[in-house]
Specification:
- With 183 residues, the protein is of the alpha/beta class.
- It has six helices and six strands.
- The protein has a six-stranded mixed β-sheet with strand order 3-2-4-1-5-6, sandwiched between helices.
- Helix 1 (29-37) runs parallel beside helix 2 and helix 4 crosses helix 5 (137-148).
- The two termini are 20 Å apart.
- The relative contact order is 0.22.
Length: 183
């Protein structure tokens, strides 16, 4: 059984609304189709997505005819509407100080990690085969650390693409972010 984590495709950014309400950029959907055609996703799997539109839309493209379950607890680290300058600095601060919100109104990294890891573990435990989860960069970065017992890899987070894919099997990353592009 393998756990496939997929980061959503490129969103259509609207800084006046929360990122949790953004949809896929229709001009960039081809990038999601590239992942679908890369041959790295399992033919048979349980498909589950965050309830954010960009993740659900990505999952439906990738899953083809398969059903996609939608779970709120796979959402990204919450942040309110408004463009955030130095976004990466805020995410780094959030990881370094996981119990402090990096910006007013943001969910803490600690709360995100607990919420997402609890949900992922439950899905893996109740599913006999492969699981494909479609969600978000920070949430997946925190989940990978929790599931593998390793430190949060901010370098991997910075390099993660839209979309991207990694595989965890037996508590170990067996296919890192971005490896799908090289075959």
């Amino acid at each position: 059984m393998a756990l496939h984590l997929v980061r959503h495709g490129p969103p259509l950014i609207d800084p006046t609304t929360p990122a949790s309400s953004w949809h896929l950029d229709p001009d960039e959907v081809g990038r999601v189709r590239e992942l679908a055609e890369a041959g790295v996703l399992p033919e048979r799997a349980r498909w589950v997505s965050s309830d954010e539109p960009k993740a659900v839309e990505t999952a439906r493209i990738l899953a083809g005819d398969a059903d996609v379950e939608v779970l709120e607890d796979l959402r990204e680290q919450y942040r309110p509407a408004g463009w955030v300058d130095a976004y990466a600095v805020r995410v780094h601060r959030s990881v370094i100080h996981p119990d402090e919100p990096p910006e007013e109104g943001w969910e803490t990294a600690g709360a995100t990690r607990v919420r997402v890891a609890r949900t992922v573990r439950a899905l893996v435990e109740e599913t006999p085969g492969d699981v494909v989860l479609v969600g978000h960069g920070t949430a997946w970065t925190l989940a990978v650390a929790e599931l593998t017992g390793s430190p949060v890899d901010l370098v991997a987070w910075e390099r993660m693409q839209l979309p991207d894919h990694c595989v965890i099997d037996g508590g170990e990353v067996v296919r890192p972010w971005g490896a799908w592009r090289s075959g």
